[in-house]
Amino acid sequence: MVDVTVTELRKDYFGEKFVIMNSGRSGRPVDIKVPMKKTSTRCAICSEIRGNGKPAVVVDQKSKLISSKRPYDLKDDEMLSHLIPVGRHLIVAITNHDDKVQTLKVEKLAQILSILQETARSSSSRKSGEYTAIFLNYGVGYGDDGAVTSYHPNFEILTLPIIPPAIEYEIKAVEKSMYDLGICTICRVVSLETGGPRQILSTTHFLAFAPWAATHPFEFWISPKTHQTSFLKISDKEISDLALILRSTLGGVSHALGDVPFTVVFHNSPQGDKDLELHWHLEAYPLVGIRAGLEEGMSVFLNDTAPELAAETLGKASRRELAALVGVV
């Protein structure tokens, strides 16, 4: 039994990230609601979809694939590295601006995830040392006028000329765990969190849980129950199940916390390096906390909501969402 009233320093599953859990500073999780404030009626994605002279390729009747005008790459110059406009940045967007991922029908979300998988496969870098990042932003991001524009539901695919530090960090931890124990880190985590106080929801193929050392209030992960290396390799049946658990948990966040901004990030193995492998998973961050000096300057995180309390709140809300989605009253 975990005493969530005690302030403590937790180390994450992979071994080198630290989080101070200080639940005593906040109220009960259900009291924390941070509704978004819309600051602009202008939507850059809607402008793309309407075809204002910018490339937009129709993927299906409800979704579009957009080539961004802002791809990124890195150029090294001895001690200095800087961004230059080379690379690929794609957006898979739902046509209807007012739709939300957290309220979509499961079948529609599964269709979008299939499009995302197919698009990421075709654009994914196979070069060693490069990485294809996949993520979702809701209520975060800014247009050319400085106004928030990411209310429009969309997933992004960004090719990077590096393996991101967070991914490299996990890969090294997996390599060490495989060498020392013969089992990957996330496989151990799934076993540990299944049925425990941090479990949020379980479906046929996936487990949703609040991580032991969550860096954000109400952070949760979704992991395959079996060892898999990439979202790009899962089956249609698994995509349908992923859509169900993702829709249920994001819907649970919306019901428990209100219409808060959030991000969802895919942690996949690099496509171009067969020896660099991790157990793929999603990490979701409802953006209800504040990152300040300790987080930004020291990379030590302060979380006012213990994962056990977050899991209790999100679990109840997510199970209600799941029951409604599958027709169980």
Note down, in words, how this protein is organized.
This protein is of the alpha+beta class and 329 residues long. The protein has one domain: 2-Layer Sandwich (HIT family, subunit A), CATH 3.30.428. The chain is built from seven helices and 15 strands. The longest helix has 22 residues, at 236-257.
Task: Give me a quick take on this structure.
The protein is α+β, with helices and mostly antiparallel strands and 329 residues long.
What descriptive keywords fit this protein?
329 residues; alpha+beta; ten-stranded antiparallel sheet; three-stranded mixed sheet
Topology of this protein?
Elements: E1 8-11, E2 18-21, H1 44-49, E3 56-58, E4 63-67, E5 73-77, E6 80-84, E7 89-94, H2 106-123, E8 131-138, E9 154-160, H3 165-181, H4 185-193, E10 199-202, E11 206-209, E12 220-224, H5 236-257, E13 262-267, E14 281-286, H6 293-298, E15 300-303, H7 307-325
Helix pairs in contact: 2-5, 5-7
Q: What is the helix tally?
A: 7
**What's the overall geometry?**
globular
| Percentage of residues assigned to helices | 25-40%
Largest sheet: 10 strands, antiparallel
What is the distance, rounded to the nearest whole angstrom, between the alpha carbons of the first and last residues? 31 Å
Structural class given helices, strands, pairing?
A: alpha+beta
Q: What radius of gyration results from the CA coordinates?
A: 20 Å
* Portion in strands: 15-25%
